[in-house]
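Sat 14:20. Reprocessing the chain from the morning session after the first attempt stalled halfway. Input below, unchanged.
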Amino acid sequence: MKYTWRSPSNIALVKYWGKHGIQLPNNSSISFTLSNAYSETSVAFEPKADDGKLAIEFLFEGSKNEAFQKRIEKFLSSIISHFPFLTSVKLHIESTNSFPHSTGIASSASAMSALALGLCSIEKELTGALANNDDFMRKASIISRLGSGSACRSVYPHLAIWGENPGVANSSNDYAIPYTEAASIFTTFHDSILIVSSDEKKVSSTAGHELMHSNIFADTRYKQANNNTVEIIKALQSGDLEKFGLIAEEEALTLHALMMTSNPSYILLQPESLQLIALIRSFRESTKLPVYFTIDAGPNIHLLYPHSIFNEVQDLIKNELSKCCENGKVIEDQVGIGATLMNA
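Finished this time. Tokens:
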């Protein structure tokens, strides 16, 4: 038996940065679910004697990857209580990405959510549990979170919210919830990912989260993020593009300011990242078009804009922005439908 899930990356509009306990966020966050930046993961299983041990074969992009293998083994060992069947099957896991990993485009979010969905499919097959789709997706979100915090948002279409916030009904630290009340303009939003560098980033997100424990701005940041979550929801509901964009940009720059004020401090932005920000803002000022940016934990710039100005923005990318990108590389993406089971 084999289940193959395609799960997308997501780009946070309000950022999750700082955690406690077992992958629990210190503030709420909200993200666009993407479409073309995804991981596709197949999880095949066959019965074996239940000796209390895991049996795993893992391939990434068709080859063995020792670092990823160890991470997967550690993750699966930690969730045996959630999936008791894990010690009575041999797993064959194969995963591929449509985009470069470890560059700040949330490859762990897409990869871990795809794996979590595959494990939930196996549980459903073996035990008959999770027959209700809401239950299935909630457990997939929980398991995704345990693998990589922001992965819990990737299972849902369009937009998802993660983290307890008194201003957001049913919000939880344990799992993400779908956000379905955005104005229609946001469900077709574009995200052109401007690749400044496809190199693996020098400081991992895991290390960055740990540094928040000693960051002197941490408490203020968590309050800011929770307030921004509520405010950007208002903008999403009303279709207020300017408010939406200004919060997204504030969040992006705050994230990198937190990195620069960590101890030790570090900088993931590159000179081309700053050039792109200046070009985007100059274009917006001169044309009055609603083009905004956000940035994840890396140097690459996510250009956010509505479908109605697609042609104008593509001209901007071709004529100006691509010159600041690594070999002119741009990944064209847009808000997507969430995770998809590729085989039934």
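Residues 7 and 42 are 11 Å apart (CA to CA).
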